[in-house]
């Protein structure tokens, strides 16, 4: 089955490259062009046993042993899926495996590894043509944070016993800014994500952004669904996770809210499986659905709609879990599923197509799970059709939507849709199937290719004739020698 997917995408990309030269993802990409893979260092891969201090794999709330070296050694898993940014969470000395309850910003978490190992990970990420991003928690740090001893006035206490850094306090602001500027200068990371941004002073965020970007031009993102704020390059689109989960947890769902989300998502972070709570797979299981099918359709939506996709580790293997830490399982890199290939294929298209990343959106059809939309710019056009219903669906697209004398080339099922006698293009999809169509000029028969095949055939026949004649002559010569 993997061969089938690989062949499909190869054919699709070949068609695409003939129609339009591909633009490969590189360091010149802007945030709107990126796709982000979000991991927890502790739950990715354990390579160094030297840093396994009191690790307990049987306790889901304890450190499990994942480290920087593990990420470095298995980074191809992320690269091969086509992501352009690796987000590794918080890496500072912490009381918890997820890095959120920070003890000391100026020390790396010893379970994760050393300064040299983090720099090696960053170098490997850059060598793999990806960027690297780190989280900065500030609102639920450990009660034993080193700053709290000497400067208790910098903090307020949360109900759960953790501390929140008061980022309206000028001294606390200066301390955090100085730390962040030093960190990005030392490690040359490409982005920072502020945790619980909606609890931080907007004025501080704007000033913080200006000062750290004077040191290094990094992305500054929010982890929260909120309205955009000055200084933040992107925030999570409010309602996007809930809308996508509701639309795809089962078939024949109300998909009307999807159109509203899609029309608002440009420039925003879009995600469906955040690490803060339950996994989308848990929703599917509750509906007694088949997770790979649900995820297949959802990823087609997520990676072709406007916005900056953020995919959490484990989504590619349909990781389950209703709450933290159950939803933070160790990633099983040995699992080989079609879903991983599907993500790679979609990201390959997205990375190669400016229209799929930043093109205009036009909703062509939406009705209870049957959704068809167009992404286009001046150079290219794509039609996405997602049939998340319990029956076969069809749509007839007029020439003023597709164009005259065009072909719609399906890149996964290899379908070809041509203009009918009535001038329309008829797309038909089986239940619970998604297809991505590239709109190109109608090709008909490739005369040059056919001529080349004929020429090759003629040359081959001539070659056989020459070999036959030489063989016949050799036998005659041998017979003459024997008669003498």
Automatic annotation (TrEMBL):
Residues 1-24 form the signal peptide. Residues 38-350 form the Glycosyl hydrolase family 13 catalytic domain. The chain crosses the membrane at residues 448-468. One of its GO terms (molecular function) is hydrolase activity. Keywords: Hydrolase, Membrane, Metal-binding, Signal, Transmembrane, Transmembrane helix. Its cofactor is Ca(2+). InterPro entries: Alpha-amylase-like_C, GH, GH13_cat_dom, Glyco_hydro_b. This is Alpha-amylase family glycosyl hydrolase. It comes from Planococcus shixiaomingii.
């Amino acid at each position: 089955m993997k061969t089938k997917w690989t062949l499909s995408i190869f054919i699709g990309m070949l068609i695409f490259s003939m129609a339009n030269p591909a633009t490969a993802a590189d360091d010149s990409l802007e945030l709107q062009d990126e796709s982000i893979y979000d991991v927890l260092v502790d739950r990715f891969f354990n390579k160094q046993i030297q840093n396994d201090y009191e690790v307990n794999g049987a306790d889901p709330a304890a450190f499990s042993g994942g480290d920087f070296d593990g990420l470095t050694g298995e980074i191809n898993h992320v690269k091969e899926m086509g992501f352009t940014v690796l987000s590794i969470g918080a890496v500072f000395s912490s009381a918890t495996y997820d890095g959120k309850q920070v003890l000391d910003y100026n020390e790396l978490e010893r379970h994760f590894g050393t300064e040299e190992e983090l720099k090696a990970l960053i170098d490997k990420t850059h060598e793999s043509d990806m960027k690297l991003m780190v989280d900065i928690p500030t609102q639920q740090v450990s009660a034993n944070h080193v700053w709290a001893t000497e400067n208790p006035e910098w903090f307020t206490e949360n109900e759960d016993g953790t501390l929140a850094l008061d980022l309206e306090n000028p001294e606390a602001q200066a301390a955090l800014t100085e730390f962040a500027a030093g960190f990005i200068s030392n490690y040359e990371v490409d982005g920072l994500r502020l945790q619980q941004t909606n609890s931080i002073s907007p004025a501080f965020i704007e000033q913080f952004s200006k000062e750290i970007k004077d040191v290094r031009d990094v992305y500054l993102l929010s982890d929260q669904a909120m309205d955009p704020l000055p200084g933040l390059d992107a925030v999570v689109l409010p309602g996007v996770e809930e809308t996508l989960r509701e639309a795809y947890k089962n078939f024949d769902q109300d998909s009307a809210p999807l159109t509203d989300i899609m029309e608002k998502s440009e420039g925003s972070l879009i995600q469906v499986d955040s690490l803060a709570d339950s996994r989308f797979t848990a929703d599917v299981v509750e509906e007694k659905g088949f997770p790979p099918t649900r995820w297949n359709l959802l990823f087609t939506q997520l990676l072709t709609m406007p916005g900056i996709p953020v995919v959490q580790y484990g989504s590619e293997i349909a990781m389950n879990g209703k709450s933290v830490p159950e939803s933070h399982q160790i990633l099983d890199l040995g699992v080989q599923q079609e879903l991983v290939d599907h993500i790679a294929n979609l990201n390959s298209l997205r990375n190669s197509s400016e229209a799929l990343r930043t093109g205009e959106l036009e909703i062509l059809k939406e009705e209870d799970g049957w959704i068809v939309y167009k992404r286009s710019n001046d150079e290219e056009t794509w039609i996405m059709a997602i049939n998340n219903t319990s029956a076969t669906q069809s749509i007839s697209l007029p020439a003023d939507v597709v164009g005259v004398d065009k072909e719609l080339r399906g890149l996964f099922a290899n379908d070809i849709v041509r203009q009918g006698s009535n001038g329309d293009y008829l797309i038909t999809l089986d239940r619970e199937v998604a297809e991505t169509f590239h709109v190109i000029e109608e090709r008909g028969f490739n005369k040059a290719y056919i001529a080349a095949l004929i020429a090759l055939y003629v040359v081959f026949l001539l070659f056989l004739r020459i070999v036959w004649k030489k063989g016949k002559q050799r036998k005659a010569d041998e017979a003459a020698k024997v008669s003498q």
